[in-house]
Amino acid sequence: MTYCPCCRMGLKKGWELFGSCLSFLSPTKRFEPTLVQYLQDNMNNKNESVCAGAQFALNLLKRISGRAVRRNHGPDTKELEAIQVQKKKKLF
After folding, report:
1. Does residue 3 sit in helix, strand or coil?
2. Exposure class string for 1-33: b at 16+ Cβ within 10 A, else e
3. CA-CA distance, 11 to 90, in Å (whole number)?
4. Is the pTM of this model over 0.70?
5. How many angstroms separate the Cα of 91 from the Cα of each of 49, 63, 68?
6. Beta-strand (E) ranges in 1-92?
7. How does pLDDT run across 5-49, given as a tens digit for each residue?
8. Among the four 5, 33, 41, 87, which has the fewest Cβ within 10 Å?
9. 13 Cβ neighbours under 8 A, 6+ residues apart
């Protein structure tokens, strides 16, 4: 099996994007159990980037669960900067 650094980086970036989206777009109550199951399944993945990303997203989902605030706009600059700082501290 060959090692592909760009594949690993793609996985990491994909999970970061997923976490960023989750920060601003809460899942519906109907979809949330399915999403939780998907994240829990991926926490047992052999790839540590996938495990870490799933754990990060699940923790984020638990924090925002029950928050029914819907936004009509995307994140502002301060919110994006806060996400970047949080990712450097907690993700991977």
Report:
1. coil
2. eeeeeeeeeebbeebbebbbebbeebeeeeeee
3. 16
4. no
5. 9, 16, 25
6. none
7. 666 677 888 888 888 888 778 888 899 999 999 999 999 888 888
8. 5
9. none
Query: Would you state the pLDDT for residue 79?
Result: 77
Residues in the chain: 92
| Spatial CB neighbours of 58, under 8 Å, sequence gap ≥ 6 | 36, 39, 40, 43
Q: Two tokens at 59?
A: 């923790």
Residues 49-87: pLDDT tens digits?
888 889 989 988 888 876 555 555 667 788 778 777 776
The token pair at 25 is 């777009």
